[in-house]
Structure formats: structure tokens, C-alpha cells
Amino acid sequence: MKRCEVIARLNQPKSTGCPVKELPIDICGKSVQVNCDAVANFRTIDGSCNNLKNPEWGKAGSMQSRSVTNAYDDGRSTPRVRSTCTGKDLPSARVVSNAIHAAGVSMELEPHFSYMIMQMGQFLSHDFILTKTFTMDDESPLDCCGNETLCSECFPIQVPAGDSMNISCLAMSRSKAAIDCKRIRQQLNGHSSYLDMSLSYGMNEEAAKDLRTFSGGLLNTTNANLPADEGDSTCHLEGEFDPILNYCPESGDPRVNENVGLASMHTIFHRAHNNFANGLAKINPDWDDEMLYQNARKILIGVWQNIVYGEYLPLIIGQPAMKYHKIDVTNNGFKDTYNEKTDATTINEGGIAFRFGHSTVSRLIVLQDEDYSLSMPPEPLEDHYFLTKLYHIFNGRGHEDVLRWTVDSACPKMDRMLEPSVQQKLFQDKSDKASDIAALNIQRGRDHGLPGYNAYRRQCGLTPARDFSTARGGLVDMDSDVAALLQKVYSCPDDIDLFTAIVTERRSNGAIVGPLGQCIIADMFKRFRDGDRFFFERNDPLIGFTEAQLNAIKKISMSSLICITTRTSTMQDNAFLFNTSKKPCSEFPVLDFGLWKQT
User: Fold this and answer.
1) To the nearest whole percent, how much of the chain has pLDDT over 70?
2) Which pLDDT score is estimated for 493?
3) Secondary structure, 3-state, 420-463
4) What is the crossing angle of helices 398-408 and 558-565, to 10°?
5) How far apart are CA 535 and CA 583, in angstroms?
6) 451-480: per-residue pLDDT in tens?
7) Average pLDDT, whole number, for the chain?
8) Rounded CA gap, 209 and 124, in Å?
9) How far is CA 6 from the centre of its chain?
10) 399-402-408 Cα angle (round to 5)
């Protein structure tokens, strides 16, 4: 099998401002033999051998794919920087962000969706994509607004004079990439593409082993919480290290502590694995550690995929789109759609399109106790990036209070506007240095050579826009006020960046995104489903569930999972819907482990 990826380190002259460069090179003349066990009952950790004929499809560390031809400036590698209609420079990503994406004074809210919509979206995206960026040799960031400005792997964002951030440049290094067999730069995915909980279990065997106890199939914990990252590499630890109440929590993804809500999601799935392992051990006392670990992992992935396709995704793209693309799940029984010719590798544009969720990030973070009463006053989100104070507060249960807030509070409205916590104060440090997630999303798309709006409209069978009107032949899926704003910053509709396009289109009926978002997201999740040999609904005696086991898994909702893994006493039926009546957690289904009793 040919493998068109490798990263080779080569010295670069110091005069360029980039002391060391990781240069992608082409090794298409060589092959790497991958030996797969065709009768293995369980997934590999890194996603390899999911497809037996193409073992590296979707594997961690492989190249992301594309559904549309790249629009690199040189056709191969350099970022998209020029207008397709005028040849002039594209507007600064920060200029676009300020004109289109800056939120108003008040935070507009969704009438029906809970904040779990945002938190689930972030957690989910971290399962299928991890795009790392180029760094110095010691893994410190490139100083792309300073000493390394001229480095070819820097792609900083110019900030206009008079900007409220009071700076002239936002640093950004390019995504790590390889050169494919056609000599095109392709970005690398650190995680497997499959929805396999790699963000909890790790992206390779070494990472997975570090998280295991190797006893009873269990994952490591600290006082029933996530274990400690001994290197303190996943958070900014404040105060003296405490092995119980002040440490950086560790999971299978380095972004675990980006915000405490994300860490809380990692925690409940971590706990769920151990809950399942303990349940299996009671019913099968003869099973060894490996058997318990793999079966608990298999069940958790099944529960996860059911939540994604059964609860979350229908709210994002709409139930009609789920059925049209044949990616909906059945209430009971099997639905086997596996196709060995489907490549489940994450599509580049899907990773950018899925960033629509940044529009739903709150400007606050709130904690609620078991009665859903405030356990402390709301605090600005920007005060808690990569900090763990709220995770460990209240004797190590603060993260549960954050989780209750996510299901009991309305989500910020999914629209073109992003809250100041991410559009002005992203990752703000003690010196008030910060960034802008909207500008980064736009610049990242250009870095990846993603074309503009109309290229994807055509790919999706949607009418391309010839002008900025909202009449036929124009921006028919956008409101007139939005179209007017876009016309002020872009030369033509062709130039509209993908992220901006996704969050500015009007919603489709029953969906939270517009037609283009529906198309790209549905396409990606169809690949994830149909290209996954281990997808939980498959009717395959070797690797699947029995029908009774599958039906039991389909009863475990996100609300059920929260009830099982936290001290929460009441929950609404659907954790993603806001302001609905709650019922006792005792009324939610739990898994019948007797269905897994080995005879």
C-alpha cells in the first residue's frame, strides 16, 4: 500500500526568521505494509484496519481528504490570499470578523436549545479531528508576529489600525501537513476520523495504555475524576499542585482543559467506561482485564454513536436531512449501511464547517448545584481558559455543577455573531493578550487552501451566487442585511470564506444551519457512518452487538448518561432541549449487563 505522507525535519537558514522547519515531502515511491487481523472483534485504538482493503483510511496521523479541489494560491501549497474576481488581496480575516461576526451588547439566546448543544458540538469535533500547528523544535509556538514572522509556516492575521484589540497582528502558524502523491499540501489529522471516542481513549496505543489501570478493565481516576496529567501540559496550573484537588486533568485529547465544560464531558464518559467495566465484571467474573476493557469501550462507543446520530445531529441538520442522507438511526434493531468503498477520512471542509458551534459559545460560565440553583455567581468565560479551578471546586465536583448549567440554560443563538469571550478575548492571558476565534477560523480555511462560498454551493447542487443581491442569482439563502455586510468586505460572492458562509446562511427548516452547512455536515457524517466497519448498528456477529444488546444501548440517552455518572437527581428527557420538565434520574434507563453474560 502506498502511503503519501511523512514529515522530515530540515534546517532552514536563520535569515528567514524560522530556525527549524518541518518540511512535508513526497515518498510515493515507497510503501508501508499494514498487517490487519481480519477476525479481530474490536477496533484498533488508532483507527487503522477499520477498512481491511485500505487499512490507513481514517487512521490517526493520516491526511484529511477534500470534497472540492484546493484553492491554494499556487495551486499546491501556499494559502489562498487573493480574490478570484479581482486578483487583489482578500480582506484581512480580522476585518471580516469585526464586520460580520462581532456580537452586540446583549447575548441573544436560542428559544429551545440548551447549552449542551454547544458543549456536545465541541466534544464531538474533538473526536474526529485534531489539526496541530507547526511549532519550534521544542514545541513552543512560533512567534508569527515577531521573530518568526518570515517563517514559511507562519500565516499571521493583520489587524487594522484602531482595532479594539490595540495590536497590529494576530499570531497564527500553519497547520501541520504532508505532501500527497499529486504534490498537494494536505493537512494531517492527529485523531482517528471514526467516531470511536479517541478523545477519551487516546490516539495511539501508548496514550491508551497511560490511561489504563490494567485491572478490571478500568481507566485511571483520581477520586472518581479524571486522572492527573503528571507533566501539567494540558492546563495552566495555578497554585501548588495537589494530587486530589489541584492538578491538570488528563484524558485522551490534549485540549481537555480548554474550558471546564469540556473537561466535564470528558469526565462523564470516562466514568461511564468504568461503570460499564464494573457492570460487566459482575456478570462475567471470569473475564480478564483486556476483555473487560475492550467490551466496556465497545459499549461506550455504541452509546456515543447513538447519542450523536440519534439525539444531537438531527437538531443540527434536521430530521428530514438525516433521512434523506440515510444517516438516521432506528428506534430498535439493526440498520447496516456499511460500504467498504466509503472512505471515512475526515474531510477538510467538514472540520471548518463544524466550527459553526463557535457561534453558540457563551460569554459566561455558570455553576448549578443538585437542585439547579446557582452555586456561585456567573463568571466571564475568558477568565477560565485552560484553568481548572472550577473543575476542582466544591471538593472536586465543580465540573458536575457546570454540566448541570449546560442542560438547564439556553444556548446563545446560532447566527453570524460570536460572543466577545471568543471574538475579542479568546484565550486571554493575565496580560490581556488574546485572540479571535472567528478570524482564526477564516484564516485557517485560507491556510488549508479551501475555496470560497460558490465552490461548495456547486458541489452541493446549490445555485451559486453571481452578486450580493438576495434575489434569484444572488445570495438567496441569506438575509438582505447580511448580504449588504458581506458586500462591504468581499469583492464578490466567490470570495466569501467557508466559515463565514456557514454561519450567515438562513437556517433550513428543522435545522440550526443553512443549506450549505446541512450539505457539508451530512456528507461528512455519512462518511463516518457508512465507512465505519464497526458502526454500532451493524448486523455483524463478529464485531457487532446482538439485537437485544443494541436495543439496550439505544435506550441510553445523554440525559441517562448524566444521571448514571453524576450526582444529578433530575433531568429532562432530552439534554439538548431547554426549559422542558425534568423527572427523577431513577426513571431513566440503565444498561442491562445481563445481556452481555457469556454462556
Assistant:
1) 95
2) 98
3) HHHHCCECCCCCCCCECHHHHHHHHHHHCCCCCHHHHHHHCCCC
4) 160
5) 31
6) 999 999 999 999 999 999 999 999 999 999
7) 94
8) 22
9) 24
10) 145
